């Protein structure tokens, strides 16, 4: 940095650092994809009684393409999806047609973020005094 005194060099260095940080923040937000922010029931919850519905809340809109509820034997339990199935949303809900018996359960989901990333995961919970969620 020719022609800059020590104060000028510090200012130039600080300006460059701020510009790089701003670029990094822009790249991170452009590369971000939907992650699970919260769920009902919550991960690892031990519920005294069956929930009447489930909900998944994401950090950004996600088009959930698969939503399943499995019991501890791996058998799929019926769900009734609520709301539109097309397009992306930051929340996905489903109701249960009847109460779940005591036991361990796993909600599995898979979907597509607005940025094109495929994502998915599982939420485990327990109803009554059943065994631990697998």
Put the structure in a nutshell.
InterPro entries: CopC/D, CopC_dom, Cu-Rt/internalin_Ig-like, Ig_E-set. This protein is α+β, with helices and mostly antiparallel strands.
Domain count: the total is 2
Helix fraction?
Answer: 10-25%
Task: Indicate the CATH class of the largest domain.
Answer: Mainly Beta
Q: List low-confidence stretches.
A: 23-30, 130-134
Annotation, overall tally of beta strands: 8
CATH architecture of the largest domain: Sandwich
- The H/E string reads HEEEEEEEE
CATH topology of the largest domain: Immunoglobulin-like
**Rg on CA atoms, Å:** 23 Å
**Main sheet summary:** 8 strands, mixed
Overall pLDDT metric: 82
Question: How far apart, in Å, are the first and last alpha carbons?
Answer: 61 Å
Which structural class should the secondary elements be placed in? Answer: alpha+beta
Number of helical segments?
Answer: 1
Measured by DSSP, the beta-strand proportion falls in 35-45%
Q: What features would you describe in this structure?
A:
It is found in: Cell envelope. Residues 73-102 are annotated as: Disordered. This is CopC domain-containing protein. It comes from Craurococcus roseus. The model is unreliable at 23-30 and 130-134 (pLDDT under 50). The longest helix is centred in the first third of the chain and has 26 residues, at 6-31. The protein has 134 residues and is an alpha+beta fold. The protein contains 1 helix and 8 strands. It has 2 domains: 1-31; 36-127, Immunoglobulin-like. The N and C termini lie far apart (61 Å). Strands 1, 2, 3, 4, 5, 6, 7 and 8 form an 8-stranded mixed sheet that branches. The relative contact order is 0.21.
